[in-house]
Specification:
This protein is of the alpha/beta class. It is built from 16 helices and 12 strands. The strands form 2 sheets. The protein has a 7-stranded parallel sheet with strand order 3-2-1-4-5-6-7, sandwiched between helices.
């Protein structure tokens, strides 16, 4: 999608813009000649995450914008106020605020330490509120002022709360800021909206959740940047208080071909969280796998779970233990209910029926027994299963994602 020049000379304050969606929005605005404030924490290279505020600033300036990289933890009130003051001092004001910074932990109530709860709510809900509060006096004086929160529609279905209530509360806190502030500042001509992706976006967070394979079923962050650009260049007095989806925003301005946004053109795309209304059925993405697995199950004798665990035992190695370093329990429902364990923490690994006999379990997976077999056969993508509610995970999400390495080994043995 081409730039129009409408953000030329405008000052755009973006939280968490050292990488991912925030940086993509910064670069899109920079191509118009905008002034970009990168408000993020990363000043030194991270061992696994790309980018710092300085590398992002270099890209912004190479794209045609001016940039102020400012190291700030948006949980700290004084730090945020100083960042805003420095932005105004350098560029003369603030016209746009993008609340993008966010923390995620897809854990249940008993598996979410209060430290992690506080982190998510301090960054997502409180950080959004704080940055908005600090920028609003300048937005009131800004040219065509906007606040855009990267947060989902307020979907009150229990499904989106039960497996990760703390994360949902934190993200919905950002969306509630939209609901309230849009009405509060409507007469000031400040447009306050939310933007959310229809599909998974290839970011560091998605790679953490689903591994590199999941990225192949995602779109690039360019689709969020292009959609954000459309929203931020609208007349701020015309539309406010909207919960927007990236694809819908772009369709409204005439975009019909979304394949250029796919990481792997032609691939089936993962649905993102919180979207299940208006005929958008994420379960439909699994239709082809259902057909294949149903055919396979008709040919397979009963006892598929036990046979799968025999194969799992044969796939355990010291190398795999060193890679995963985790203990799992599988609580299976359906035709073959029961509890099974997998030890990928000790010696060369082991697996068996019943609860793990040796101590604390790092990750518990709850799913239908048939879906369990399908996952290890490679007929059901575990990330898709999790995102549509077929797979429930309690405990350490990181070791859950590492288990995919074993699943890849299993495909040739089942």
């Amino acid at each position: 999608m081409l730039n129009t020049g409408k953000l030329a000379g405008k000052t755009v304050f973006i939280t968490g813009a050292s990488r991912g969606i925030g940086k993509a929005i910064a670069l899109k605005a920079a191509r118009d000649g905008a002034n970009i404030v990168i408000a993020a924490k990363t000043t030194e290279p991270h061992p696994t995450l790309p980018g710092t505020i300085y590398t992002a600033a270099k890209e912004v300036e190479e794209a045609g914008g001016k940039c102020l990289p400012y190291a700030v933890d948006i949980r700290e009130e004084e730090a945020v106020n100083e960042a805003v003051k420095e932005a105004v001092k350098k560029f003369g004001g603030i016209d746009v605020l993008v609340n993008n910074a966010s923390a995620i932990s897809l854990t249940g109530t008993l598996e979410t330490p209060m430290k992690r709860y506080d982190l998510m709510n301090s960054i997502n809900a409180r950080g959004t509120y704080l940055c908005s509060q600090a920028c609003l006096p300048y937005l009131k004086k800004g040219k065509n002022p906007h606040i855009l929160n990267i947060s989902p529609p307020l979907n009150m279905k229990p499904h989106w709360f039960k497996n990760h209530v703390a994360y949902t509360m934190a993200k919905y806190g950002m969306s509630m800021c939209v609901l309230g502030m849009a009405e509060e500042f409507k007469d000031d001509g400040i447009s306050v909206n939310a933007l959310w992706p229809k599909t998974g976006i290839a970011t560091a967070a998605m790679q953490m959740l689903g591994g590199k394979d999941a990225l192949a079923q995602c779109r690039t962050d360019d689709i969020m940047a292009d959609a954000a650009y459309v929203v931020l260049t609208r007349d701020s007095r015309a539309r406010t208080g909207e919960f927007l989806i990236d694809e819908d925003v772009l369709r409204d301005v005439g975009v019909t071909d979304f394949e250029p946004y796919s990481c792997v053109p032609g691939s089936k795309l993962l649905p993102d969280f919180f979207l299940d209304d208006e005929g958008y059925d994420p379960h439909a993405l699994l239709n082809s796998q259902k057909i294949a697995s149903q055919a396979a199950s008709q040919e397979s004798p009963s006892g598929g779970v036990a046979k799968t665990f025999e194969a799992i035992k044969g796939a355990c190695t010291k190398e795999l233990v060193d890679t995963v370093k985790g203990i799992f329990e599988f609580h299976l429902e359906g035709k073959e209910p029961g509890v099974w364990y997998l030890d990928l923490e000790n010696n060369s690994g082991s697996a068996g029926s019943g609860s793990f006999p040796g101590g604390e379990v790092g990750c518990t997976m709850i799913l239908d027994s048939e879906d369990f077999v399908k996952m290890f056969k490679g007929e059901l993508n575990p990330t898709q299963a999790f995102m549509v509610g077929k797979l429930k995970i309690k405990g350490d999400m990181m070791i859950a994602m590492k288990l995919e390495k074993l699943m890849k080994k299993m495909k040739s043995k089942l």
